[in-house]
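Students often ask what a holo structure prediction actually looks like on paper. The answer is less mysterious than it sounds. You provide the chain, you provide the ligand, and the output is a string of discrete structure tokens encoding the 3D arrangement of the protein together with zinc ion.
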Amino acid sequence: MASKSASRTTLRSPKSSKTKSTTVTAATAGSSTRSVEKRLAELRQRLGEIADIKAASAVLNWDQATYMPKGGGAARGRQNATLNRIAHEKSIDPALGRLLDQLDGITTVRTDDHDDTALVRVARRDFERAIKIPAALVERISAHGNSAYTAWTEARPANDLARMLPFLNTGVDLSRELASKFGNTAHIMDPLVDAAEPGMTVADVRALFNALRPHLVTFLASATARKPCDNACLLQHFPEPKQLAFGLKMAEHFGFDLTRGRLDRSPHPFCTSFATGDVRITTRVKADDLAEALYSTLHEAGHAVYEQGVAAELDRTPLAGGTSAGVHESQSRLWENIVGRGEKFLTYAYPLLQKQFPEQLKRIPMKTFYRAINRVEPSLIRTDADELTYNLHIMIRFDLECALLEGTLAVADLAEAWNARYAQDLGVSSPTHSDGCLQDVHWFGGIIGGAFQSYTIGNILSAQFYSAATAKHPSIPDELAEGKCSTLHGWLRDHVYRHGRKFTPLELVQRATGAKMSTEPYLAYLDAKYSACAGLPASALGSPST
Ligand code: ZN
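The corresponding structure tokens follow.
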């Protein structure tokens, strides 16, 4: 973004080491290398402390979501606030900015794709982003998020939209104020998208969505003309401990390393990483719905193998962790949907599942189970949506939040606009706001905008990465049918996981797949899978005009 280079100019010292590097002599090169090494050590020390504090805060959050007694809530809130404040102060310390200035010339002693060069580049990006946002605004957003979230937990079950409208108005105002700190951008929401998907803009997201949407609409029209697949086999009684054990066993097959991770239960499944040696996932279990725990576990396991696969030497630096929300989501979706709901892996896994639940499944053929877990049906709730209609839920939210921030949609008209889009895009209408525009927590957690697109970017990229992996190793599908995931996992580790945040999403996709981010592999995947699954002609997704 243009605003980034403007900020770089103000931050860079007048005589940067980059300028000097053109005239270094052999004698000065040695001392210059030594001073770079010294500065890098100091940078690692500073960033390491920030990473330690953030990891400690993540442990507190994990504990709160899993085992903490209710009475600990108030104290935990204070403890976390203190850690977050210290981490933020260290992140915007002017001394860190000066150090990054001095390391501007690092490419004189390191190659462009060296870990240290990436460390300086990413640390600078994080620093510049952090210093643009005034602490007072961060506090206002945080306070608003806390009160909006608390109100939402009561207003959603009570279907009380009127109570939430003032919060939505404040959320829009704060989001616009936050976005304005990044200067003039082509779209007001660009800085919020950039925070989740570094280097991407609203226009980039719209281009992807426009390429996908007509095909989804065409497919959905074909699918809804038929009766949805029967999913009764999933809705029997399945003892919870046996469900958890099976999900974890499959996660281990994917490469989730239990010497560096664990699985626990929580109301909302999530994955959190404290270091590459300690990555934790949670799941939720329903005794009368087999798909809930199994696919929540496989989804979070996908996030976890990404975190565990980051090169250990990137630990304690800002390079640890996934490069963007969308790339992270691509891994949860790849392992959950492409592998876990795929015919090949089920050839291996389903007989084991039948053994785990003989009474419930021994008379259910694999084909029936496969169709049940891949059933397509337009629905009101995003989190319950099937793999295909899910993207339409996302596009509705993305368009509406863009319009709210642009000012072309008033908060007072949001519910009407929401219902109109659901009727038009999915052919369903909700009798309540609880299952309408109040259903997601995202708009009530602080700011509005910049989060939803990453789910569909994840779906798109899951197929692009899988397609690149199988192009390199055509044996992967047959290996999955034998329960062998190591070739696929190895390709992903080498091309995606180990790099952490070294590359932006667009750079990573280009390096890993040899192509720009594209919807083509995802459309081909949906076409092959859902045409067969729903008994539709293979051309059902082929052309939007048919
Ligand atoms: Zn996820």
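DSSP finds 23 helices and three strands in the chain.
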